[in-house]
Design goal:
The complex is a heterodimer of chains A (about 325) and B (about 350). Chain A is mainly alpha-helical and about 325 residues long. Chain A has 15 helices and 2 strands. Chain A has a two-stranded antiparallel ribbon. In chain A, a hairpin with a 6-residue loop joins strand 1 and strand 2. In chain A, helix 3 packs across helix 15, helix 8 packs across helix 9 and helix 10 packs across helix 12. The longest helix of chain A has about 35 residues. Helix content of chain B is about 25%, strand content about 30%. Chain B is built from 9 helices and 18 strands. In chain B, the strands form 4 sheets. A 6-stranded mixed sheet of chain B has the order 6-7-8-3-9-10, with helices on both faces. In chain B, strand 1 and strand 2 form a beta hairpin. The longest helix of chain B has 18 residues. Classes of the chains: A mainly alpha (about 325), B alpha+beta (about 350). The interface between A and B is medium-sized, with 19 and 23 residues.
Chain lengths: ~325, ~350
């Protein structure tokens, strides 16, 4: 074998493709980006706009026929007290779940990044991810067993002599109920459990981008740990918290399975959408209701941006 | 006038040790740094010099021993309650703040009113020649500019001791040499004690009033740059600071008549013709040029001696120096015995 074999041999077809792409980076970029952009652009955005368009149709109350003509009738119906109640309940649940998830996830993420050894960190990663490996439905039903009136929590409270505490919590107006599995508290606990990994992982990613020398520099310049946290760690971790909150907030806004299994009979947005597009056949109303979480997320993100959540990106 | 023995040193270590697991990062260290001094901690990586700096800053606590900063024992005192500031190796500028906000940070924490801290930060940026950069983000600056911001951010707090952890390590050679001169001038101007960690012996020699050479968590020698270079106390110092010939055992006996180890700097050894005359009082030995390293201002000749052993010598590439010997050429090396430096207390 001599070195000129390489130069004179006719290159194979894969080599020629490789060479052609290497010399034309724009073509490569085009080939790489077209499939995902088609998917996102046409299929996702397309269906989103179809949804938006549908929300301007309206249903005939008597015949149940959808009139495919432009009107604000459906949007007018959206802002009734009953629907407003659904929107408010869902949004406040999403907000409370998000705040609780952030409060739980931050210390865990901070420990994982700042203190845990490589081994412990791997175990914690596994612990956070493991629930995602099993079926969501199975996990939600197990929570039903845990929270039911004859379930583990009640049994535990009874054996610890804390039944009075459980009953006290359940007797709180509005969020209480006859048992944890039929109250908003139960719905909250399950939402929190199911979405927590989606809050932990982005915060871990954000904190990993804060080198220890920033924290040392802040202390060196006279800042007590509390001030270092407020002025250095939190601002730099905030994009991660916001990314996590986008997950927990939007997932809670859109979910219709958890509140159907655990909680009160008052519907959440997802359940309402499901009911409108199913038995009721009111596709325009389902579409209008679906726009609501999107609008709420848009408002949420613009507020987050204004508060400087993305400044450290 | 205070009595000489009542003058309080800026930093004093008494029998300080710091362990990381089984590793002794700092081993039985005692050290005194005078107020207003430019003091360097020089050593290879892992020699304990950075740990020493972190002990002063308060990021580490000693396992054994006592550290005093301006006469005050600092055991258990956290970094935010110490009157020292640090310039970090990676600068550690806060990326979400502007240059000005970074410099003001320490003053803001100390609740200095906004107008005053703004003014002082502006003055400090002027001192480090970055007046126009107040509203920039650190990411918009070059490495050298970031280094200056880090310096301004530390100095604006008027610490009594400034700690610098290889602050010029990330800069290119030209900028590094320029910053060496500027840092030294700045230190004279502000009169603060500078404690400077570096693994670059040239930097330590150029800038320091005194320096400590670290090896394996211990200090091998503390002295002024000239003394460290001319009279290295140990073989390690001789080898680490500059280039040196270390002669011992049989080679030492052949050259000097005793087996006592000694070092001699290459530039003290003269190159001559094998048949050239040299004064009787001078050492004289013949050998063959093994390799030649061109260094620009000078050329290094590595010579294999007849009878074994190697010496290297430096020859200035001066205007009238003529042509040097070629590789493989037989030559004579001569030097005055007074340039030999005996190594002490160095059994290894």
């Amino acid at each position: 074998m001599t070195s000129d074999t390489l130069a004179t041999a006719t290159p194979g077809v894969f080599h020629r493709i490789a060479n052609a792409l290497y010399l034309r980076p724009r073509l490569l970029l085009f080939l790489l980006l077209t499939p995902p952009l088609l998917w996102l652009g046409v299929i996702y955005l397309g269906s989103l706009f179809a949804l938006l368009a549908q929300s301007f149709f309206y249903i005939d109350e008597f015949s149940g026929v959808v009139h495919r003509e432009f009107s604000f009738i459906t949007w007018g119906q959206l802002f009734t007290l009953a629907n407003f109640d659904i929107i408010l309940r869902t949004t406040s649940m999403a907000a409370v779940v998000t705040i609780a998830a952030a409060l739980l996830a931050f210390p865990l993420a901070y420990y994982m990044v700042g203190y845990a050894s490589t081994r412990v960190k791997a175990l914690l990663y596994l612990g956070v991810m493991l629930p995602l490996w099993s079926s969501y439905l199975v996990r939600v039903y197990s929570w039903k067993l845990i929270l039911a009136k004859e379930g583990i929590v009640t049994w535990l409270a009874d054996s610890l002599g804390l039944l009075w505490l459980l009953e006290g919590i359940l007797s709180i107006p509005v969020i209480g109920g006859s048992s944890l599995s039929t109250s908003d508290i139960g719905t909250f606990l399950v939402f929190l459990y199911v979405w927590l990994p989606f809050m932990v992982l982005p915060i871990v990613a954000a904190l990993e981008r804060v080198p220890p020398s920033y924290i040392e520099a802040s202390a060196d310049l006279g800042a007590y740990p509390r001030e270092t946290f407020r002025r250095v760690i939190l601002p730099l971790a905030l994009p991660g918290v916001v990314a996590g909150s986008i997950f927990t907030f939007s997932l809670t806004l859109g979910d219709y399975i958890i509140p159907g299994i655990i909680g009160t009979s008052h519907p959440f947005i997802g359940q309402a959408v499901y009911a409108h597009q199913g038995t009721a056949g009111n596709i325009p109303m389902a579409a209008a209701l679906t726009i609501v979480p999107i609008a709420i997320m848009a408002v949420y993100l613009s507020i987050a941006k204004r508060l400087g959540a993305f400044d450290a990106l | 006038m205070p009595m000489a023995d009542t003058i309080v040193s800026a930093v004093r270590f008494s029998g300080v040790s710091r362990y990381f697991g089984d590793v002794r990062a700092i081993d039985q260290l005692s050290l005194e740094i005078a107020d207003g001094e430019f003091f360097s901690l020089l050593g290879p990586s892992g020699s304990g010099k950075t740990t020493c700096l972190r002990l002063i800053a308060g990021f580490e606590q000693p396992d054994v021993g006592d550290i005093q900063i301006h006469g005050r024992a600092v055991a258990g005192v956290p970094p935010y309650e110490r009157d020292v500031n640090t310039v970090f190796q990676d600068y550690a500028l806060f990326p979400h703040m502007t240059v000005g906000e970074n410099v003001e940070y320490g003053l803001m924490i100390r609740k200095v009113p906004p107008e005053e801290r703004h003014r002082r930060a502006g003055e400090m940026l002027e001192l480090v020649k970055l007046s126009g950069m107040f509203d920039r983000k650190p990411s918009q600056l070059s490495g050298g500019q970031r280094q200056r911001v880090a310096l301004a951010r530390a100095l604006v707090n008027q610490p009594r001791v400034l700690l610098l952890d290889e602050p010029l390590g990330a800069l290119d050679l030209k900028l590094r040499e320029q910053m060496q001169v500027e840092l030294k001038a700045l230190q004279r101007q502000v009169g603060i004690t500078f404690i400077y960690v570096t693994h670059d012996q040239g930097e330590a020699l150029a800038m320091s009033d005194r320096l400590a050479v670290f090896n394996h968590g211990r200090i091998e020698q503390i002295d002024a740059p000239g003394h460290i270079y001319e009279r290295p106390a140990t073989r390690f110092v001789a080898g680490f600071v500059g280039v040196s010939n270390v002669c011992e055992g049989e080679l030492a006996r052949r050259l000097t008549g005793t087996t006592e180890p000694f070092t001699i700097r290459p530039e003290k050894i003269r190159l001559a013709d094998p048949i050239a005359f040299s004064p009787d009082s001078w050492r004289s030995v013949t050998g063959v040029v093994e390799s030649i390293v061109y260094l620009g201002a000078a050329t290094r000749y590595n010579v294999v001696l007849e009878g074994g052993g190697r010496l290297s010598t430096l020859r200035q590439n001066a205007d009238d120096a003529g042509k040097g010997p070629q590789q493989g050429e037989r030559i004579r090396l001569t030097w005055q015995p007074k340039h030999e430096h005996r190594l002490q207390g160095d059994a290894s």
